[in-house]
Amino acid sequence: xxxxxxxxxxxxxxxxxxxxxxxxxxxxxxxxxxxxxxxxxxxxxxxxxxxxxxxxxxxxxxxxxxxxxxxxxxxxxxxxxxxxxxxxxxxxxxxxxxxxxxxxxxxxxxxxxxxxxxxxxxxxxxxxxxxxxxxxxxxxxxxxxxxxxxxxxxxxxxxxxxxxxxxxxxxxxxxxxxxxxxxxxxxxxxxxxxxxxxxxxxxxxxxxxxxxxxxxxxxxxxxxxxxxxxxxxxxxxxxxxxxxxxxxxxxxxxxxxxxxxxxxxxxxxxxxxxxxxxxxxxxxxxxxxxxxxxxxxxxxxxxxxxxxxxxxxxxxxxxxxxxx
Amino acid sequence: xxxxxxxxxxxxxxxxxxxxxxxxxxxxxxxxxxxxxxxxxxxxxxxxxxxxxxxxxxxxxxxxxxxxxxxxxxxxxxxxxxxxxxxxxxxxxxxxxxxxxxxxxxxxxxxxxxxxxxxxxxxxxxxxxxxxxxxxxxxxxxxxxxxxxxxxxxxxxxxxxxxxxxxxxxxxxxxxxxxxxxxxxxxxxxxxxxxxxxxxxxxxxxxxxxxxxxxxxxxxxxxxxxxxxxxxxxxxxxxxxxxxxxxxxxxxxxxxxxxxxxxxxxxxxxxxxxxxxxxxxxxxxxxxxxxxxxxxxxxxxxxxxxxxxxxxxxxxxxxxxxxx
Lengths: 324, 324
Description:
Two copies of one chain form a homodimer.
Chain A: H1 4-11, H2 15-23, H3 30-43, H4 49-55, E1 61-66, H5 72-87, E2 91-96, H6 101-112, E3 118-121, E4 138-141, E5 150-153, H7 155-168, E6 173-178, H8 188-200, E7 204-209, H9 218-230, E8 236-239, H10 242-254, E9 264-269, E10 282-285, H11 288-303, E11 311-314, E12 317-319
Parallel strand pairs in A: 1-2, 1-3, 3-4, 4-5, 5-11, 6-7, 6-8, 8-9, 9-10
Antiparallel strand pairs in A: 10-12
Pfam families (chains A, B): LacI, Peripla_BP_3
Keywords (chains A, B): DNA-binding, Repressor, Transcription, Transcription regulation
Organism (chains A, B): Effusibacillus consociatus
């Protein structure tokens, strides 16, 4: 095991300097800081976490990494995270990672430098290598990465509720528009449930994936146009977000299909907008506020060195409205 | 004018300690820090900004104060602000102020302590006393406060375009749902334009204000229900946001009024959702991305001690779709 002395020697600085960099204390030039980081990385140096946390200066900042705050689901989630973080004396730094892995990596580096105390990670990036072997306060959202605690709602239950509802309402051919299944997200379990249940009931099904940037709204309309053109006999849609469901409503109007008479639609999330659309969306409600509150609780416990539960899965709820 | 010596004496610490607090450098206990701040406040001490900025350690964090990121307009705005800030090497810290003045004040204190380098302020709080006499990098959004540079779109032009369109389409009695006019926002100019133009044309008008928490969605439906109950002959609605316009669409459906045949609706903002609603919303487009980019440019220039333009007003654009 390399020691702090080895790091100092390799970086050509004193032990005090390394200690200062680790604890983000005193004045250190950016060049020196970089030299020390490099030496630490080359030697795979792991500072003694407990000793470190006793000394380190807290920033009281939590980093929140999400695909984009412009999407209603993440906008509402971030609002709640900020609300509960503030109750605990923390501010939040928001990173819209989109699919930018480098940007996400910078936040992890900030965590290493104690510029943020912890990270709530709900990004959709494909590679998550950077997270492995990290021993910092991190909680993931709808993703399972290494041994980090995670927050999710029961996606399999959500997929089951949505699919069963459409079948019980008499749908014979159901389309499912889901995210990109290449991404390792727990939300994929919605699609698994959909597939299994339609198979069990011998119901014809079509599954369409969005592209990698699942929140690129522009694609939804063309995906749905193509779907309805190729499968004129679809009589049920299970969309993996309320926004996609809203586009389905719009495209139904273009194809002169009446909702719910000709075609039934179920969304997902129950963002505020779900109840404004006409007809009001039937959807699967994720308990966003509770999930945000727990994400903050888990990250703050980690920051304070307390134990936290690893798997935190919330039940979802079917909100039956006017589209089914 | 009090000096750094006076502050040190009052706080019972050395001049070096005060300097460290000012420049956020070296180790300072929280108790000492608080003593120094208190002394500074009591003495109304204003550090020499230029000398200070030469010494101070930048945080590369911009504070963004908005009513709530859960509202689509501010969600999209924050997404763009983060995008452009990141290009310039800045991270953003998001504060959903709602109507909480104390919360907002904390961010100003962070600015004073160099924990954030600047603030983009778009909150809707009633009192803005804390901002006066501040000499820090601040840019306001849709508000004019003291001598701070501000970013806005041309609200008067927006109100004019919306009202003229409704009149030209034959509306004889137009309702206007606006924010709370007690709040000192530039958006109030939309209502001024509405009032002037309907008066000029001798068009009957009803103006309804939302309550202070203008983004409390729950109120919209009851406001519109009451409006349509009391004024069954309204044939035009100018709503001050697309979300309110969407609620108007919903309530029209309840009152069996066909849009645009019986009643015409114009929204405001042109958030992404405006084009998903059926029928698609006619609205006034604010150039959100350009406004966000300039807000970042102005704040970064201030942080770097460069001059910036004080009044930054963007033209708006009428997006005629299916509700008029």
